[in-house]
Amino acid sequence: MASVTLANLTKEYGDLTAVDGLDLDIDDGELLCLLGPSGCGKSTTLRMLGGLETPTSGEVHIGDERVTDQPPYDRNTSMVFQSWALFPQKTVLENVAFGLKMDGVDEEERVERAREVLEIVEMGEFADADPGDLSGGQKQRVALARSLAIEPDVLLLDEPLSNLDKRLREQMQLELRNIHDGVETTFVHVTHDQNEAFTLADSIAIMNDGEIEQVGEPREIYDDPVSLFVEEFLGDTNLVDATVEETVEEGIVATTEFDEQIQVPTPNDGVAAGDPLTISFRPEEFDVSRVATDGGQLTESAAHGDVTTALEGTITDVLYRGSSVRFYIEIGGTSVFFEQSVGDETDLEVGDPVVVSWDPEDLLVFSEGERLGRGGT
Amino acid sequence: MDALADESMFAWVGERIKRQDSASVFLLAPLAAFELVFFVVPFLILVRMSFNTQPETGFYESGWTLAAYGEILASNLYHQIILFSFKLGVIATVVAVLLGLFYAYAAYRAEGLTKSILLFSVILPLLTTLVVKTYAWRPLLAPNGVLNDLLLSLGLVDGRIQFAPSLFGTVVGQVYIVFPYAVLAIYSVLSTLDWDVVEAARDLGASRPRSFFEVVLPEVLPGVAVATVVSFAWSVGAYAAPSQLGTGEQTTFAMEIGNLMLTNFNWPVGAAFALLMLAAMLAATLAVIRLLTGSVGGVQDV
Fold first, then answer.
1. Domain B68-297 carries which CATH code?
2. Which A residues in the span 74-113 are in contact with B, Cβ-Cβ below 8 Å?
3. What confidence tens digit (pLDDT) does each residue in A122-174 have?
4. Where is the ABC transmembrane type-1 domain (chain B) (predicted)?
5. Are A26 and A62 in contact (CB under 8 A)?
């Protein structure tokens, strides 16, 4: 158990900067997910934490100790590799007991402890198996047991679930969560899968291009993304280009791709008429209804003071995606979508005229990649 | 032809081979004929020759006797030659396999241009004939050769040293001959090793040397076994290196058989010597394989 501090951590490979002046604090016992697209430097960061890479500059502290220059075998961290990296010439039990053997624990004790850890990951009956004979999920459990056996201060997980199929992956996410609650060790988990991060994490650090974009609890990040990158990475949303018409006391009036002006209540410091904006309309915030044949409903919905909060469009596509149905709507030449759960879906069909409305408070507005009112942090 | 028909064609060939009918025999015929003419028949001639009587003049006199075998088993000179052959085999094998292991590991860890250069330099000597490249060591190792000139000019030695012809020269020459094969045998297995596994060992507290012995060595042991067998079999039967870089003391059985056949014209003893050594080498090689693979299967360390 230990906290982790990364200070101004940088790793360069020749001209390529993989990690660029990264600062991150991880609390003792926390389960932190490093989330980002491939090539963003998250694995390199994890490897520097484990001592498998030497930082070009910056500091790594585990607990009160500065470990920046310590080799991996001197640090009390343990890595679960994406490939699991089990020792092919050793049995499952020998694999799990390996770290204890290196620590000089005598044979009787290390066998006993290895068996205990194998029980935790429900692999007790496979103690004498050859790792080559195990399935992916079983290998993953053994790799986890091997790392847990040495009772590391920090457990490092480098996308260990990415080689598993979807169902097994979701099951292992819950088990990892339970194991974390049981052992009270600090976990740092690298993933490019935002669902995995939301399922597992106490807190999430979103990385982009070698830097941390945002750190926070999952809910907090979802509700309050600091940048367009974070908003795009968290899931599917409708990003609509817009241009500032004027800034008003309550926010911004902008012309959108919908060919309509809308007003958004948002901090408007630093933007002026003519600036380009990107507005995120999250699909769950749309309220969609069919235009009544007499046209009465439209007038009612659109009349929300002076602010446009509803637009008229046409359903262009209906996609069944397993548990949900996705509807595409064309509004003024731009396509947006929203989803409904199967069973709750309305009977909208392609070609139906609809009215799309929203609460302006729910819109997220980005200027030059930064969220208005949050940017520049 | 559609996929189904293709499949049935393979099935047809498979059936023929399984039934060993005329079609498969026909396919094997060229190889069988080659083996028969160039291996089986000469071998049988050799066996027959070893039972002939030693001649007063000429190569042999037809007969049936074990005299040639008796002479070899009784001769002190032949005992020493056999002993030296095995000694050279063991020394050259140990040196070549140890150096080969380091070299293969270096090539495995190297990247880009360095890796290409390391692998190419090990293959390059294979493009030259054995005699020429072995002979090339003479001007390097001779008392008035390049190495001595270098050592003298650096003031590291007082007088000239006879690196060759000598036992040292013989070992250098023989190691040089088998080294590429040892490296390639080990590298081919090592190249399949996932580096993550070594990192995992270090991550779990194994120092660099410890991770090598715990994880890398068990994995490459099959390659080491092949390298050992090839180096050993070749070095026990060495001819080029000891004849060009050794003195009379460094006479191997292969050289002695050459003498018996080509200089002394004593074909029955030469043939008997060849057959005895063939049996001895077979036994020794099997023992080496048993030793190495046995230790793989027997590993049990928790």
1. 1.10.3720.10
2. 77-79, 81-83, 85-89, 91, 93-94, 97-99, 101-103, 107, 110-111
3. 899 999 999 999 998 899 999 999 999 999 999 999 999 988 888 888 888 99
4. 82-288
5. no
**Does residue A377 belong to the interface with chain B, where contact is any CB pair within 8 Å?**
no
| Position with higher pLDDT, A247 vs A304 | A247
Alpha carbons A208 and A202: distance in angstroms, whole number: 20
A–B: how many Cβ contacts below 8 A?
73
Provide mean pLDDT across the span A108-117.
Answer: 93
Residue B196 Cα, gap to closest chain A Cα (Å)? 6
Question: Are A88 and B197 within 8 A, CB to CB?
Answer: yes
* Interchain contact A364–B (C-beta under 8 A): no
User: Between chains, do A73 and B215 touch, taking CB under 8 Å as contact?
Assistant: no
Instruction: Tell me if B204 and A147 make a contact (CB, 8 A cut-off).
Output: yes
Q: Which residue is listed with tokens 């012309």?
A: A255
- Encode burial over A138-169: b for 16+ CB neighbours within 10 A, e otherwise: bbbbbbbbbbbbbbbbbbbbbbbbeebeeeeb
Give CA–CA dist B256/A218, Å, rounded. 82
Q: CA torsion, points A185, A189, A194, A195, in degrees to nearest 10?
A: -50
User: Nearest CB to B302: which of A83, A87, A107?
Assistant: A107
B214 touches chain A (CB under 8 A): yes
Rg (CA), chain A: 25
Which homologous superfamily is A4-231 in?
Answer: P-loop containing nucleotide triphosphate hydrolases (3.40.50.300)
Which SS3 state, helix, strand or coil, does residue A121 take? coil
Locate the domains of chain B by residue range: 1-37, 68-297
Burial state string for B140-149 with b = 16 or more CB within 10 A and e = fewer than 16: ebbeebebbe
Identify the pLDDT of residue A21.
Answer: 92
CA atoms within 13 A on the CB side of A354: 25
pLDDT tens digits, A297-350: 444 444 444 556 788 889 999 988 888 889 999 988 888 998 888 777 677 888
| High-pLDDT (> 70) share of chain B, % | 90
Give the pTM.
Answer: 0.78
Quickly name the fold that domain A233-371 has: OB fold (Dihydrolipoamide Acetyltransferase, E2P) (2.40.50)
Mean pLDDT across A187-193? 94
pLDDT at res. A292: 65
Distance from CA of A16 to the nearest CA of B (A): 17
